[in-house]
Amino acid sequence: MALRAYIFQGDTALEAAAVGNPSHILEGHAGEHVGKIQEALIMLDGAVIADAERLTKYYGPTTSKAVLNYKTKRGIINRSYQNAADAIVGIMTMKALDDELFQFQQSADFSDSGCKICSQQGSHRNFLAVNLLKRLSAQA
Q1: How far apart are CA 9 and CA 62, in angstroms?
Q2: Which of 4, 18, 107, 129 could pair covalently with 94 via S-S, beta carbons 3.0-4.6 A apart?
Q3: Packing angle between helix 124-139 and helix 32-45, nearest 10 degrees?
Q4: Worst-scoring range by mean pLDDT, 42-56, 67-81, 92-106, 120-134?
Q5: Are residues 52 and 23 in contact, defined by beta-carbon separation less than 8 angstroms?
Q6: Residue 108 has what pLDDT?
Q7: Could you give the dihedral angle defined by the CA atoms of residues 33, 30, 61 and 104, in that order, rounded to the nearest 10 degrees?
Q8: What are 52-56's contacts with CB under 8 Å, separation 24+?
Q9: What are phi and psi of 89, to 5 degrees?
């Protein structure tokens, strides 16, 4: 499955997690893919993740809690064998994160050639964060 959200595109670990159970991402994992999940949780859900975990891109206890909170709020539960959300980033979670980030990108004036505003501000990530703050402020 090709991921559509800008920050997920081309990440083989995230793409694998989006299509196969053996590639689930869970507590104890580390790497760029974990950092991208952390970033998405912060942008989409206002997650609070420990600086030590974010700096090392480590899936520790606060990342685990953020994933669980995200999944619980959105009802991401595999009802074939679960009664409650877990803290694993698998197929359903990747789809939800990717869909939600992609929708946010669409509302933030992205185009196929990239974001015109980002190129002036430095990065898509900065642009997404700034626009998320604007969106949250407007809702308050």
Answers
A1: 25
A2: 18
A3: 20
A4: 120-134
A5: no
A6: 63
A7: -10
A8: 56/30
A9: -95, 105
64 CB neighbour count, 10 Å cutoff: 19
Tokens 């002036």, located at residue? 120
Cα distance between residue 93 and residue 25, in whole Å: 10
Q: Which of 85-89, 106-110, 117-121 has the lowest mean pLDDT?
A: 117-121
Note the pLDDT of residue 121: 43
- Provide the residue count of the chain: 140
Degrees to nearest 5, angle at CA 13 with 23 and 68:
65
What are 36's two structure tokens? 């991208």
What's the gap between Cα 80 and its chain centre?
24
Per-residue buried b or exposed e for 28-61, using 16+ beta carbons within 10 Å of the residue's own CB: ebeeebbbbbbbbbbbbbebebbeebbeebbbbe
